[in-house]
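Forum: Protein Structure Q&A
Topic: Joint prediction for protein chains with partners

I've read a bunch of threads here and the consensus seems to be that you should model interacting components together rather than docking separate models afterwards. I'd like to see that in practice. Below is the full input, 737 residues plus whatever partners are listed. Could one of the regulars post the assembled result?
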Amino acid sequence: MQRNLRTVAMAAAVVSALALAGCASATPDTASGGCEPSDGPVDLTFTSWVPGMDQVVALWNEKNPDIQVEFQTGPNGNSGTYQNFFNQIKAGNAPDVGQVEYDALPSFRVQDGLENIAGCGDILAAGDQFVDWTWSQVTFGEDNAVYAIPQDSGPTAMYYRADLFEAAGIPVPTTWAEYADAAAKIKALGSYITNFPKTDVNWFAGMVWQNNGQWFENNGEDWTVDLTSPESLEVADYWQGLLDRGEVSTLASFSDEWNASFNTGQQWTWISAVWGASTIKSGAPDTSGKWAVAQMPQWNAGDDAAGNWGGSSSAVLKGSKHPYEAAQFALWLNTDPDALEMANELGGLYPASKDGANLPVFTAGQEFYGGQKIYDVFAEASAQVIPNFVWGPTMTQTYTDVSDGFGAALGGSGTLADALATGTEKTIAALKAQSIPVAE
Amino acid sequence: MSAPSLTRSSKAKGSQREPILSRSAAMLIMGVFTLYFLIPIWWLLVSSTKTQGQFTTTPALIFTPDAIPNFIDNISGLFAYNDGVFLKWILNSVLYAGAGALLGTVIASMCGYALAKYGFRGREAVFNLVLSGVLVPATALALPLFLIFSQVGLTNTFWAVFLPSIVSPFGVYLARIYAASSVPDELLEAARLDGSNEVRTFFTVATRLMAPALVTIFLFQFVAIWNNFFLPLIMLRDPSLFPVTLGLYSWNSAIGQNPELRSFVIIGAFVSIIPLIIAFLSLQRFWSGGLAAGSIK
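Posted by a regular:
Agreed with the consensus. Here's the joint model:
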């Protein structure tokens, strides 16, 4: 999950009422019948790139002698595994269960790469166990349909250098207006409040998400693409302002220079997802104990909205011969306390399961963050993520085109808003090129 | 008379001046390129002696005081991580590249020798067909190969990477050119008269004469298989079958979940170039000799 950050994206979204079903011209069977347990022992395959997942699978195999799962791995989704999934689906030998990030689910759905597992035992009823927005992501808002089991999520909050804010007498911002004020003061002290990451378009999408904006809609038939909604433009103009005033750096997130800027106190905050905690910890070791986490700034004082950056699901891929067992395994993988604890410890996953947030590992104070129980903040943020964000069916392309535009804007040609307009045009062209119906 | 001697003397002067100029220019260019190629390796060496925290807190190209203990820590961590899977990957790469290059060399040299020394109908057609294989990039073949191997149920097996690796159109080309020029027909005739059959003649007479070309083919093929990343990426899912390139790439793409992997990717990349360096140092004499001989003849 998180990893994909850079290359592309992750993040998640939901489709609430607007079913993707529509793209259904290319996606025939939405019926959930015909999912019965198999007779006799079953062998499944499961592909994931999360470190340590092989050990979670071993735990399952120990407990379920009749359903043995073979673990397979590869690079993260956008680095090759998604393409492998599509190749395998074509060849008829896809794994029964595969890891798919929320923002990639629509592309699998429109290419008919997912099995509907709603009829597989009690899967439909399992929705209550997951954070609402993650469940909308895997159902696409369709009735009687479940295409994957939510695995992890990336609710966003604000990491900040508590010591520097206090020493400078700058109040910790709670709104975006205060954040801009703080940015100006920090600039005057010779540092930056944060960076604007031109390549992390999924991060930017998370900011739009927090502002209750949408980039995509699907009415069950046609897709609507508009990256330039008022909410989206508000976010773009806000960051354009910070960039124009030179109050944010333009370092690439996750680069060595960027890590060093945190380590030397040149950047004071990072609006990021829950998994970012380990990123800062490993990248800025000299600042241990000086960080804290707060809810991310709000557009209106008193609001309580969070965005999301990253997260993935365990999808039953098209062609599985044992969808029932595959669905049971996927459900266990993402709800069993032992499994979730191992996935967090070894793979850094923050569970999409509601109960998962109460695991002992998430209730302890974090030394690096001055002893703060930072996961309490993220649990709160997780519940505040707006549940109906929709990802498009060609996010890799959208990310690339918007990122190119952001890069140009940072280089002084055009603005972030221009980049979004261009991204809209190119995405519509890409959908048409793939014969995905687009509403004009 | 005087005109030519003038020309000659001015030429001589020029040729005296030029060497200094061109030599220093050549040295400069070589120096720049040497730096250009060596700095990344230097960075890799220095980085593999750092702890996770030191990546961002210390200068990138300078050793830290505790470089040696860190290096030992990193190495032992690398080989211990995930039950020593890294060692498995290195051995896999050695097996794919070593056995694949050996078998590939045998096949290519037999094929090239046959094309050079036996006249048969369609010889040029066969040769041109093989030669056209040089023009098709290996990456373009990976997906079709995946679909074919899926049909016969061989994806995600050792054979999925090994079998495509033993084919070398370029090796056939080189072997034919080299056999044509370095294996005299008279010698083969003599061997036949002495009662040697064709296979024995090939292995006892022809391969010795072709040795420089064989080493060249072996090295090319070894490096090509070692560096072949796309085919294993598409074919393999089982981490115990990965070559080291794919294993490191997977780790690198999972740094987000597990930042500890960053150290391992760097030290692993450093360790993984050592077998290539060994192969080059031990075989490069043959390689340069073979290339030069082939090109002159």
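DSSP finds 13 helices and no strands in chain B.
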